Each structure stands twice: as C-alpha cells, then as structure tokens.
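Ligand: FE2/S2 (inorganic) cluster. Inputs:
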Amino acid sequence: MLGAAMLEQTVQIVANERDRNLYFRLVMRAPQIAPLVQPGQFAHLRIPPLKAALLRRPFSIFQVEDDTFSILYKTVGQGTEVLSRMRAGEELSAIGPLGHGFTTPRAGGETPLLVAGGYGMAAMFLLAQRSPQNGIVFVGGRRREDILCEDEFRALGWEVRATTEDGSYGEKGLVTQPLLAEIQNPKSKIRNYKLFACGPTPMLKAVGALAAEFDVPAELSMDEHMCCGVGVCLTCVIPVKSGDGWKYQRTCTEGPVFDARQIVWEGIR
Ligand SMILES: Cc1cc2nc3c(=O)[nH]c(=O)nc-3n(C[C@H](O)[C@H](O)[C@H](O)COP(=O)(O)OP(=O)(O)OC[C@H]3O[C@@H](n4cnc5c(N)ncnc54)[C@H](O)[C@@H]3O)c2cc1C
Ligand code: FES
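Predicted complex:
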C-alpha cells in the first residue's frame, strides 16, 4: 500500500533522447505524479521490456513541466540499456514521488551551494529552480562528458564551477577542491551558506567532512542500492545517529536526503 503522497501510475514516454555519451533524458507524461514532486525526490520505474520487469529502478526526478516529469540517467547495466531503447509513445509503470527530499532554501536564508557528481546533477535542478535565491553549483566528473546540464543552471542565473578528474574540462581535480576554496575565500561575498550534495558516496563523505570541519549545515542525498523503494525490504538502510548511539534508517523513505551531521560514516561502504 502506497502512502498518500506517492502514486503508482502508468506513464507514457514523451521523449527519450541521448544527452551525451552514456547519458539520456527521459520525459514521461504523469499528470498525477508531476504536481506532487519536491526537489530531491525520486521515481521508481518498472521497465516492461526487461525480463525481470518486476524489479524497478530508482531515478531522481530531474525536471517537472506541466503534466510531465523527466529523469536524466546514465546507462550502466541491463535496466538502463533497455530503457535507453524505449521510444516515445511506449509505457512504463512509475511509483512516485518517493522519499524525503531537500529542504527548499527560504528567501533571505543561507545561500545554497550545490555539489554534484555525474548524474547527481539530476537531483539538483528542481532545488535550484525552486530556490528563491541563486547560489553556486559545483559539478564534478571523471571527464568532460560527465559534466551535465551546465547551461540549464546558468539559464536559471546560477554560477557553475566544473571540475574533471582528467582535466579535460574546467578545473582539474575533485569537485570538493573549488568548494573548499570558496569556503576559505576571505573575499567571498557569501557569508552564510548551506551545502546540498548528490553523487558518489566518497564525494558525499568528503562534503560531509567539510561541513563538519567548517560547521556549516549540509543535506546529502544518499543514493544507496534499492529494491522495493517503499520501505518494506530494508536493502537500502544506512546507520544514523540516535541519542548516544545509532540506528538504521531507510534511504528510500527516511531519505534519500539526510542531514550530514546524522550520518554514521564508519558504517557506510
Ligand atoms: C535514490 C536514487 C536516485 C538515483 N538517481 C539516478 C539518476 O538520476 N540518474 C541515474 O543515472 N541513476 C540514478 N540512480 C542509480 C540508478 O538507479 C542505477 O544506475 C540503476 O538502477 C542501474 O540499473 P541497471 O539495471 O542499468 O544496472 P544494474 O545491472 O542493476 O547495475 C549495473 C551497475 O550499476 C551499479 N548501480 C546500480 N544501482 C546503483 C546505485 N543506486 N548507485 C550507484 N550505482 C548503482 C551496479 O552496482 C552495477 O555496477 C539513482 C539511485 C538511487 C537509489
Ligand atoms: S528499498 Fe526496500 S526498504 Fe528501502
């Protein structure tokens, strides 16, 4: 049984086009789901042509427009390969919007600094779009083709700082380098800020460490492997602080977004 604000709906593909290299953008008509989406939430998709179609795949909701929502996905395995071959007019089953997303920044509050690795950019767009104030997006990837949707963030009026590990685009190195430089920059105009991050676990851990070191608030999207996506199977749990100890919480329901101070990193692979 699904909660009040999550729905299972048959959605029709409006477009499914290659963004670049291994990345695709999939737009689905979903009049029931689209109006409910909050930044950082995800949809759980059943891909009918897959042999094991019962197993759904989770994807952050990238954009919402009228009665459609879209995802930005990377082909990494069987499910995403099959998905990339589906065409406009075909149907999928979607459960969404799922999970506890980011806190939308408030007018006059902290300046948002977004940190994204690869497809982590997908979880950030709605947050930037719905934020009453613009901030900076730090985006990192292994190489040039992993730097996604820069132009869309710039069109919203956000500053984008890109890093690639191989130096093929932007600054060479890890995405946390320019973030640290901004935090330590005595000439920065930003005095009061909050970090929001989505990407690989080592990147999230590094952002969490910076947040702790400089005592700044941070929300991290923990995209663990998921099975049911709705809180039943417990495959997605991570340890979080609780009183003097810790407890497991489900990233699909209590997350994927958590306050960085709550996460017990020693218990996460
Ligand atoms: C909350 C959440 C949001 C996500 N948002 C996006 C998104 O916006 N765009 C996107 O491209 N992907 C996203 N993912 C990851 C996506 O779900 C997986 O890439 C997808 O399920 C892989 O399916 P597959 O059948 O193609 O690959 P599989 O054959 O299942 O796996 C292929 C490879 O992908 C790896 N993989 C599978 N799941 C994950 C995961 N959760 N994180 C990292 N690696 C994984 C496997 O370890 C394996 O190496 C998200 C995952 C979660 C939990
Ligand atoms: S994926 Fe089943 S409980 Fe989270």
